[in-house]
Amino acid sequence: MLKSIGVAGLSPLAVALAVAATAASAKDIAPGARVYAANCAACHGANRAGVAGTFPALTDVGKRLDPEQIKERIRKGGGMMPSFGHLSEKDVEDLAAFLEQ
User: Fold this and answer.
1) What is the rounded CA–CA span in Å between residue 98 and residue 33?
2) Which tops the pLDDT comparison, 5 or 9?
3) Contact assessment for residue 6 and residue 19, using Cβ atoms and an 8 Å cutoff
4) How far is CA 91 from the centre of its chain?
5) CA distance 87 to 45
6) DSSP letter at 81?
7) What is the sign, positive or negative, of the torsion defined by CA atoms of 43, 62, 83, 93?
8) Which residue in 75, 53, 73, 55 sits closest to 65, CA to CA?
């Protein structure tokens, strides 16, 4: 039978490791949101809803494209979307993390 233990039953090191793992796994999307606002919102909208028939919604782009495909589309563009090759690799990473949410 498994016994549930509270935080009090864990060593301080175990608690610190659990907190660090949780913090590391949570993506900070604020930088990506700023990149999106400056480079993408004019076409795809502030809420990522897009414009039907012209600019696709990006609200669920993480379900349609894997992270590498998202980054590739940002870098090279496609269809009506221009290349955003001027963005730094960090900006591309931050933007992709934001769009995956």
Assistant:
1) 6
2) 9
3) no
4) 11
5) 19
6) B
7) positive
8) 73
pLDDT digits (tens, 9 = 90+) for 43-59: 999 999 999 999 999 99
Distance CA 90, CA 4 (A): 41
Alpha helices in the chain (DSSP H): 12-25, 30-39, 41-44, 61-64, 67-76, 89-100
Structure tokens of 90?
């960090």
Hey, what are 80's tokens?
């009506």
Give per-residue burial for 62-75: e unless 16+ CB within 10 Å, then b. beebeeeebbebbe
Q: What's the N-to-C CA distance of the chain in angstroms?
A: 37
